[in-house]
Protein: Glycosyltransferase-like protein LARGE1
Amino acid sequence: MLGMCRGRRKFLAASLALLFIPALTWLYLSVGSFQVKPLPLSPLEAQSSTPVGGAGERQALELRVRAVEEENRALRRELSRPPRSPSARLPSGGHRGNQNRTHSEEGTGDNEGQKAAAVGNSSDCVHQPAVDKCETIHVAIVCAGYNASRDVVTLVKSVLFHRRNPLHFHFITDSIAQQILSSLFHTWMVPAVRVDFYDADELKSEVSWIPNKHYSGIYGLMKLVLTKTLPSDLQRVIVLDTDITFATDIAELWAVFHKFKGQQVLGLVENQSDWYLGNLWKNHRPWPALGRGFNTGVILLLLDRLRKLRWEQMWRLTAERELMSMLSTSLADQDIFNAVIKQNPFLVHQLPCFWNVQLSDHTRSEKCYKDVSDLKVIHWNSPKKLRVKNKHVEFFRNLYLTFLEYDGNLLRRELFGCPSEADHNSENLQKTLSELDEDDPCYEFRRERFTVHRTHLYFLHYEYEPSSDSTDVTLVAQLSMDRLQMLEAICKHWEGPISLALYLSDAEAQQFLRYAQGSEVLMSRGNVGYHIVYKEGQFYPVNLLRNVAMRQVNTPYMFLSDIDFLPMYGLYEYLRYHVWTKGHAPTNFAKWRTATTPYRVQWEADFEPYVMVRRDSPEYDRRFVGFGWNKVAHIMELDAQEYEFVVLPNAYMIHMPHAPSFDITKFRSNKQYRVCLKTLKEEFQQNMSRRYGFAALKYMTAENNS
Structure:
């Protein structure tokens, strides 16, 4: 095995070929009513008299895609029309037909809930003024940790899919979620979407005095302090839990602000369980609430009015008073919101039930979706999430899976006619791409170098602190779906930290998640960082993947490997405690077999060892994609920067056999592929000559003689 250095330590191994498999993403979104246009999602009709879904397997949904997309387009055309004059009021509980859908509300279908609602609220169906085409909709979300950062992406996808307005997301996050989501949105590059982050750690002191039994922990209380956290000039905001799925344009919900009257400052849906009635079990004693209470998974906040009403003082005094007898909250912020509303019912504007269909084990949500013609927001407000007990759960699960596996790249669509803030990254990218010659036979190769791939760092929980002796090392590798089976073997052979970049589609990312969660070996390891780089384009971006994995290394050293090379048992400890001089190079295997001490080797043409280097070593050159020269160029760069190559005598890796990758097949069968690779090699060598001068001549000479 090989180490290398320039007053630094480094290390060796061998080569990899990877295959990426095209994935088909299914779309099966309902636009019409359940009764008129059922979707073939699950055999629910046989289970219930409520016609919530049709029969058929998911494969049959492919036949529905075009029809559903046409319905979506028709809906958008309808919503884009100028607002009509307000129509006549319907009787309480009446409903509009889908042909006249605008930003209006429908009846809740729950007379009992209406009786318990706050004074002055009417659920009559009145035509609402349309939201201005270019009006920005503000959305606030509290998100902390690895799992919530993964879950919130599905919510964001569902919002982006239906939206027709600019969006401004306000994320209240811990450091983990901010790192993940800032990288995700930066690489997602969705037009007319702005994202701001607020440090949740700075807010902990505001709510840490409140004992909370809810699984959300201290972060479940932070919606209480949004009036203080969000910008003082922000007047209104929609607040969402991370386990929400939208089935309609969020502008419809934003338009409900126009219905607020008097001192109404909170828009909420009635709680759809018996929790606040106190009859779920013997001695059940919930916090005080108005009737069934309200669920805070979806909230409309009039921030300017709340500040004038001294909301901070209001909720604090209420919480202090109730905690004297209740001792702790059971449902986090929801308990305190309801206690405040109990004392001040004029604050709340009751939203129709379809704005928060709550799927908990004790839900009464069926009373809602039986009586309304359309569902707008699904809320998985149970710790069991998709495993919740509900006889129609398969329908709702399929709706959720639509966005879970939906190709997020398709959501990068422009909002034409709306001016947007200048995005310098996007502008620079477009300028760079416009300078490429589209008639160049190697255009696609050159373009790939500048493609921005959506990236989700730390897709699974990660927990590792490097050792304090400054010798720790992280194994770095990249893979696609066809190499997934090699993960367990590598984890068994390498007990140290690992940083992996996985090239997957959205659907494959969910397959990987299920695979990892079902593996005892992978779930027993908290020191493996899985970073998803989403598929885009026709090439396997091997060096981009390596760079993504390298950037997440937090140890002093990294061992640059490939997924089809199996480290020998004990290699991690050997690399940590072996003392080298500087080093890495072309391995003399005859000498290695009998060597007892490290020895130096010199760079040679086409040399591509696997190396151990310091964390601050150069990244891989992104111009090389697919098969050919992706590692060779990196080793050449290290040599040019005067890294020395040192072979370690008692370290080795084993190459695990595998089928040829798709990129190797293209290289062998496609002459233009080989021509372009040769062109890129020559351009790389010319760049080396310009950067390193006379010292780089040996690379061109060696190439000509090889």
Q: What stands out?
A: The chain has 24 helices and 21 strands. Confidence is low (pLDDT under 50) at residues 7-55, 82-126, 579-585. The radius of gyration is 29 Å. Residues 39 and 57 are 11 Å apart (CA to CA).
